[in-house]
Structure formats: structure tokens, C-alpha cells
Amino acid sequence: MKIPSSSAWSLSQMGQFLAGQVIPIRLAVFDVDYPLICSVWFIWDPEVEELLCASHEGSYLVSKLQKNNRIGFEVAPETPPYKGVRGKAKVSLVREGVADVLPRLIDRYLADRNDSLAKWLLSRVDEEYLLRIKPEWVTSWDYSARMKDE
To answer: Rounded to whole angstroms, how far apart are CA atoms 2 and 81?
Structure first.
């Protein structure tokens, strides 16, 4: 994975940031004639240096990734101080492992598997794909020092 020297953080620091963010990741995928941004829940897996997401087999996102697995991505809160991680990656769509990752995503973002949305998502786990996002180029920015008052 390439990390430019201008990156604010090391890969380890980026991993810590990603692990601590409970906001969706923004994925830029190729659409017909313009890029399309899709926001999905994610988990950072430091052991394999991948971002893990899940999406339904009938989703527009999955249909686009089946045609072109190259994406851009960004994880950044919308509130100051502005900081985040962005990159370029390739996505593998697989069924194996989604039954383990989907409950982890629900625990991370909903915190209650008895929630009606959680139950609905888990009821169709056999129709989900695991998105294994393998960054090829990644960078970060952190404007905390110049935004101390924010």
C-alpha cells in the first residue's frame, strides 16, 4: 500500500483513527457517466489492512462493483477539527465471512441486535455480500493544530 510523504499519519495511526470512527465510509464508484458516492458502515481489519462492509446482493452499489471493482473512499467526520483518511482501493465481493461481519457492523452502528433494523438485516444475511476493501493508496489529513478553537 502506498502512503505519500504528505500524509499526516502513519498507517498505524490511520488504523487507530478508522477503528475509532463510528460514521459511514463514503465510497466513490463508477456509474454510467459520473462517479457515484455511496455511504456504508465499515470496520477496519488491521490484521489484513482492509476495510470491511456489507451490502445486499440486489443493491445498486453491488451491481456497480461487479462491473468495476476500483473505488475511491473517505472516512472523515463532518465537524471540526477536520481530519480523516482517504484513498484508492480494489473491492472483492465475497459471501464467505459476511455472516461474521454483519453482526459486528450492527453492534458497531446500532449497538442493539434487537433493534428492528438489526433484525431485518440479520434475517437476510444469506443475500448479503462482504465487501473486502483493500487500499492500494491511502493518505490522511489532520487540521486539529490549526483549528484549536473549533
So the answer is: 25
CB contact set of 134 (below 8 Å; sequence gap of 6+): 49, 50, 89, 90, 91, 92
To 10 degrees, the CA torsion angle through 118, 101, 129, 119? Answer: -10
Q: Could you give the CA distance from residue 149 to residue 64 in angstroms, rounded to a whole number? A: 42
> What grid cell was written down for 47?
490484521
DSSP annotation of 4:
-
Structure pTM?
Answer: 0.93
Where residue 146 falls among pLDDT bands split at 50, 70, 90?
confident
- The predicted-structure confidence for 83-109, as pLDDT tens digits, reads as follows 999 999 999 999 999 999 999 999 999
CB-based contacts of 16, cutoff 8 Å, min separation 6: none
Beta-sheet pairing, 25-30 with 70-75: antiparallel
